[in-house]
């Protein structure tokens, strides 16, 4: 692919150039557009699971009900939201070409993400064995595990992407001008965090009285 | 008469002849004195909701027909007038990019048509769905099963299958005696569709729907299940028998009269077999130990016009064939082949024929 | 301003043709399996789609044979039920979607003056995911034996309403093949859609602002957005159904408080935009062909774009018109009836704009235009029966009847398939360097058209007379016999029509008249390169100044950019 396509920026300016053929031709970066499309499509997927969760609130025929089993996931959420901050710091390191600093902060992001997964796993163990809530117990169980599980799977994939970047950087395999590629991985990670905000609001804040 | 009309009346006549030639329907069958309305044309409504739909549909059809003629006319005109002639000079025609005025015209006119359609539609929807039922409306409940209809008249204490019996109403709203039907399902989604009496409404499990009929004329109205519900969806047929008020009262009385006790030896033998076997696990015969609800209530079986939810007319032959092996008549249906020997079938059929 | 698209000093190498290397079958297979070239992938998409079309069409033929006479005994009920499920599923997901993606893949890079799609490897991945999803669906005939009456292919209808799909009512694995195949295919569709969006937004050649793209490209941009928004609901449905069937979840378990209607909402939130995803590419093709064969630019380009965007947005709000009989409130029914009527307005505008394009032109009735005119007539009928169905009370009678079957076949065959035929005949010379045979094309057109109307016209009447859909047989005396018989006879006329089409494709490849770069005297960038194009598409990437760059090149005294 020739280099003239790897542009970032706005489309051509037209005022003094009605034929639009003078001056630089700038189109949005394909990587950015690609990630935005991925985020849009994943948002549509999550929306359906959120709608299903909201629809079935209060409609379980048998316990356990949300009020009886849900505990606000403080530590996990703090970890996940902090990882959005650490990933921003990692990117700042990247722009300063500080490889060591990048590896530290990026690594911290991965650690926080991994902690989130283990935290959720512990929560689920407690729900399944302690409170007898499984995906097949009632409609609350079905919609809860499906929605939180879908998010968890995205965290997991995100961790795979983050780890790949970390390893490649560690072994010096990423070219200098590929910082946009890494930025796109971080956008995905921020998206995963944003979804967690939605899940928190819908599951742990809104439905916690039902 | 149109070609279609001629053909249809020929078909109806042939069917009538065939009905006579095959084994005659049993004497106890209810509803045969009314006209058989087999051809269920939605534009020949004989009930108030169906009539409301037919009128609205007629308006819409006319509007759409008008649009069709105009646009097709335009297309034909353009194709003829602007075709490239053989002696064409090869020059390109004037390159027109568009015209705001014309665009406006052919945007505004469709919007106006849409407004008309929207008004007709919302009025008809409200009229049909939100029509209050008078106090004297007959109430009944239809429960859909894979592949038969359970009909319960809770106020009258009657449970039957596959045929809905109702009294005729009146075109004059002041004198109307409509029927209010509650629709439920025991398994998957079905749909209650008797075109000449009303639009269709689905029977959805875990949901209670309702519909209403308000027939103007007596008759046996044909209908179908109209939501794919599995293997024998095609044979989940429906008949609504609209009686005169006297006829309906007679039917109710006959349904509440218990069937006579078996007299003949065959009948008694069949009775014994029926109650000793698993028949009673699925079927109900009122006032006996047979209290199964998985299959149709058989108390007044012989008063029905069809067997197997319409897969065949009910007569001696078809009854025998059904009891012998229902899978041959309605493959995949939920009554298994009971592996009965022929004498057993004879006996059970003899007993069933007392259920009238 | 070095703006020549064709450099007179450049000598293009002899154009490659797929299969040119006779005698090295391995080479051909290798190329097909490993290619990331958008043109090869495009042809592979269309080829696979046409193959599945023939298979699904044969299934329809069998169904029509069963329904030709009342109390038919050609097929067992279970077989029939599997046939209509597979026919519908295959036609939507294995014929419609791949063919439209095939056209997009082949043409978009050429039309916007670039060398390939944005993500060529993703492109190849998406194709093979689709292809395997098709094999998976049909494997169900072999791979899913099960319990009594539960084996073999799925038999739950192409929209698989719950709770019929619950383990209790669909034993065995047949439903799972449906679920997994569609889940897989959905991934491929979303990947292709993302590829299309990124290509169109980020790879246009210099000077091609959004307002100068061919309408074909515009419509695919809109289609791709619809895909990425509306396919996830289907994926969500499949995931929930799998959870229900294998993990005992209660999403649609009505005994446990689940809602059967929820499946319908989620499915049709996908399903309705899906039908616009299928038909908008048909419009895209018509938008290219009608102007060229009328010798005029498209009438009202900005309005056509606006109408398309409107259709896309409104299509996300009409889904419950598939659910008018399910027992929604009168408020709900009224809302969806009105939103459905509203979408008819921009759709109607498009028809008028096409007529406006033809008006005052010099119409040439070559094969592509012939099929486009058929499309206009038939899509008009389809749209009008759609308007009738938007009137909810009308649908209370005709939902789930043969009237609906007739409506959507008029849309999909009369509309989409005709434009697909038009597009194949139009771009065949570009892809293969040969002209399609006109005589065979006429036989195709007339046989198929007569057969098509004979099959689906009478089905409107059968529906009005109360014939429900998805029934494997019907009793005599209901007044349905004549219409079913006519319908079946129509199929027997369509089949030779399709045969002529297939023969034409093969014959023209071998013996067709050699086509130059621009056999139709058209105006968009794909006609500026050789037929077939070289792998890199253009010797030099073009620079455009208007919507019709080749018109500007051919008519320097009267270029478009002076008037736009």
For the sheet with most strands of chain A, the description reads: none
Specify the overall morphology of chain C. Answer: globular
Roughly how many Å is the radius of gyration of chain C? Answer: 24 Å
Beta-strand percentage range of chain A: under 5%
Unreliable residue runs of chain C: none
Largest sheet of chain C: none
State the helix count of chain A.
Answer: 6
CATH superfamily of chain A: Cytochrome c oxidase, subunit III, four-helix bundle
Number of strands of chain C: 0
Overall 3D form of chain A: elongated
Q: Portion of residues in helices of chain C?
A: 55-70%
Average of the residue pLDDT scores of chain C: 94
> Residue-averaged pLDDT of chain A, rounded?
89
Number of domains of chain A: 1
* Tally of DSSP β-strands of chain A: 0
Structural class of chain A: mainly alpha
Reconstruct the topology from this structure.
The complex is a heterotrimer of chains A (210), B (356) and C (564).
Chain A: H1 30-56, H2 66-69, H3 74-95, H4 99-130, H5 139-170, H6 179-206
Helix pairs in contact in A: 1-5, 1-6, 3-4, 3-6, 4-5, 5-6
Chain B: H1 3-21, E1 36-37, H2 48-81, H3 100-129, E2 138-145, E3 148-153, E4 158-161, E5 163-167, E6 179-185, E7 190-193, E8 201-203, E9 209-213, E10 219-225, E11 237-243, H4 245-256, H5 265-276, H6 279-282, E12 306-307, E13 312-313, H7 316-324, H8 326-329, H9 342-352
Parallel strand pairs in B: 1-10, 2-6, 5-11
Antiparallel strand pairs in B: 2-3, 3-4, 6-9, 7-8, 7-10, 10-11, 12-13
Helix pairs in contact in B: 2-3, 5-9, 7-9
Chain C: H1 25-34, H2 38-67, H3 77-112, H4 120-143, H5 174-202, H6 215-247, H7 260-294, H8 301-315, H9 330-358, H10 367-390, H11 392-398, H12 402-432, H13 438-464, H14 481-511, H15 549-554
């Amino acid at each position: 692919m020739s280099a003239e396509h790897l542009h970032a920026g706005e489309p051509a300016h037209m005022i003094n150039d009605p034929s639009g053929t003078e001056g630089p031709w700038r189109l949005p970066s394909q990587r950015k557009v690609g990630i935005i499309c991925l985020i849009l499509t994943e948002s549509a997927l999550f929306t359906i699971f959120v709608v299903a969760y909201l629809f079935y609130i209060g409609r379980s025929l048998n316990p356990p009900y949300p009020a009886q089993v849900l505990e606000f996931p403080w530590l996990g959420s703090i970890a996940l939201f902090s990882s959005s901050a650490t990933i921003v710091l990692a990117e700042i390191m990247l722009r300063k070409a500080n490889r060591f600093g990048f590896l530290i902060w990026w690594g911290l992001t991965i650690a926080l993400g991994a902690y989130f997964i283990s935290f959720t796993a512990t929560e689920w163990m407690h729900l399944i064995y302690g409170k007898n809530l499984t995906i097949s117990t009632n409609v609350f169980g079905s919609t809860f595990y499906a929605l939180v599980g879908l998010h968890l799977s995205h965290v997991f994939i995100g961790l795979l992407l983050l780890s790949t970047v970390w390893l490649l950087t560690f072994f010096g395999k990423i070219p200098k001008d590929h910082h946009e590629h890494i930025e796109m991985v971080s956008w995905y990670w921020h998206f995963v965090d944003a979804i967690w905000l939605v899940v928190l609001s819908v599951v742990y804040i809104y439905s916690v009285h039902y | 008469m149109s070609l279609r009309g001629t053909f249809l009346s020929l078909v109806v006549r042939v069917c009538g002849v065939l009905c006579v030639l095959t084994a005659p329907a049993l004497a106890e069958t209810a509803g045969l004195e009314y006209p058989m309305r087999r051809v269920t044309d939605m534009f020949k409504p004989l009930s108030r909701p169906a009539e409301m739909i037919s009128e609205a549909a007629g308006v819409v059809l006319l509007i759409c027909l008008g649009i069709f003629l105009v646009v097709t006319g335009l297309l034909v005109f353009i194709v003829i007038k602007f075709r490239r002639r053989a002696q064409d000079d090869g020059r390109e025609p004037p390159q027109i990019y568009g015209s705001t005025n014309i665009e406006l015209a052919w945007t505004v006119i469709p919007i106006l048509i849409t407004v008309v359609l929207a008004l007709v539609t919302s009025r008809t929807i409200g009229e049909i769905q939100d029509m209050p039922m008078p106090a004297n409306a007959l109430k009944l409940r239809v429960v859909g099963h894979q592949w038969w209809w359970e009909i319960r008249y809770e106020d009258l204490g009657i449970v039957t299958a596959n045929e809905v019996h109702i009294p005729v109403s009146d075109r004059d709203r002041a004198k109307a005696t409509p029927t209010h039907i509650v629709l439920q399902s025991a398994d998957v989604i079905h749909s209650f569709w008797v075109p000449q009496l009303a639009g269709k409404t689905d029977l959805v499990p875990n949901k209670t729907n309702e519909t209403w009929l308000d027939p103007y004329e007596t008759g046996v109205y044909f209908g179908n299940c109209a939501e794919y519900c599995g293997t024998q969806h095609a044979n989940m047929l429906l008949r609504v028998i609209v009686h005169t008020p006297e006829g309906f009262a007679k039917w109710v009385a006959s349904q509440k009269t218990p069937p006579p006790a078996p007299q003949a030896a065959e009948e008694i033998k069949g009775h014994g077999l029926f109650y000793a076997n698993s028949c009673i696990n699925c079927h109900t015969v009122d006032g006996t130990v047979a209290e199964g609800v998985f299959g149709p209530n058989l108390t007044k079986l012989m008063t029905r016009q069809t067997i197997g939810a319409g897969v065949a007319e009910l007569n001696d032959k078809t009854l025998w064939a059904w009891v012998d092996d229902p899978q041959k008549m309605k493959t995949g249906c939920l009554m298994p082949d009971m592996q009965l020997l022929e004498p057993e079938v004879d006996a059970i059929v003899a007993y069933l024929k007392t259920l009238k | 301003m070095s703006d020549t698209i064709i450099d007179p000093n450049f000598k293009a190498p002899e154009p490659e043709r797929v299969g040119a290397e006779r005698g090295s079958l391995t080479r051909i297979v290798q190329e097909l399996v490993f290619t990331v070239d958008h043109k090869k992938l495009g042809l592979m998409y269309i080829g696979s789609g046409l193959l599945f079309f023939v298979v699904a069409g044969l299934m329809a033929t069998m169904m029509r044979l069963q329904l030709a006479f009342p109390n038919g005994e050609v097929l067992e009920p279970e077989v029939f039920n599997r046939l209509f499920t597979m026919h519908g599923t295959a036609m939507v997901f294995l014929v419609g979607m791949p063919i439209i993606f095939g056209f997009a893949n082949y043409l978009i890079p050429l039309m916007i003056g670039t060398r390939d799609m944005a993500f060529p490897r993703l492109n190849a991945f998406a194709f093979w995911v689709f292809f395997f999803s098709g094999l998976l669906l049909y494997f169900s005939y072999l791979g899913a034996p099960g319990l009594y009456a539960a084996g073999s292919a799925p038999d739950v209808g192409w929209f698989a309403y719950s709770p019929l799909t619950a383990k209790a009512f669909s034993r065995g694995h047949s439903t799972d093949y449906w679920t997994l195949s569609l889940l897989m295919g959905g991934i491929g569709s979303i990947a292709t859609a993302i590829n299309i969006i990124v290509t169109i937004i980020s790879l246009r050649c210099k000077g091609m602002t959004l307002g100068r793209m061919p309408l074909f490209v515009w419509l695919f941009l809109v289609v791709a957005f619809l895909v990425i928004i509306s396919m996830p609901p289907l994926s969500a449905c499949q995931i929930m159904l799998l959870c229900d069937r294998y993990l005992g979840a209660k999403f649609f378990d009505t005994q446990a408080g689940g809602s059967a209607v929820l499946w319908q909402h989620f499915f049709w939130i996908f399903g309705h935009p899906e039908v616009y995803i299928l038909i908008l590419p048909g419009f895209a093709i018509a938008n290219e062909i009608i102007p060229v064969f009328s010798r005029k630019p498209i009438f009202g380009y900005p309005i056509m774009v606006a109408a398309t965007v409107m259709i896309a947005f409104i299509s996300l709000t009409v889904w419950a018109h598939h659910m008018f009989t399910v027992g929604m409130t009168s408020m709900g029914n009224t809302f969806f009836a009105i939103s459905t009527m509203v979408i008819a307005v921009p759709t109607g505008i498009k028809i008028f704009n096409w007529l406006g394009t033809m008006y005052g032109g010099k119409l040439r009735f070559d094969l592509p235009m012939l099929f486009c005119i058929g499309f206009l007539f038939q899509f008009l009928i389809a749209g009008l029966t759609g308007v009738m169905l938007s009137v909810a009370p009308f649908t209370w009678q005709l939902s789930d009847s043969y009237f609906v079957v007739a409506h959507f076949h008029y849309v999909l065959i009369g509309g989409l398939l005709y434009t697909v035929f038009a597009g194949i005949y139009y771009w065949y010379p570009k892809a293969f360097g040969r002209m399609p045979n006109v005589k065979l094309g006429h036989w195709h057109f007339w046989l198929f058209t007569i057969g098509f109307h004979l099959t689906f016209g009478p089905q409107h009447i059968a529906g009005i007379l109360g014939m429900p859909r998805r029934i494997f047989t019907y009793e005599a005396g209901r007044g349905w016999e004549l219409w079913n018989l006519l319908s079946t006879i129509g199929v027997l006329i369509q089949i030779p029509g399709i045969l002529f089409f297939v023969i034409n494709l093969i014959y023209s490849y071998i013996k067709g008249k050699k086509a130059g770069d621009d056999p139709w005297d058209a105006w968009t960038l794909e006609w500026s390169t050789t037929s077939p194009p070289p792998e890199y598409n253009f010797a030099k990437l073009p620079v455009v100044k208007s919507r019709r760059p080749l018109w500007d090149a051919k008519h320097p005294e009267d270029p478009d950019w002076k008037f736009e």
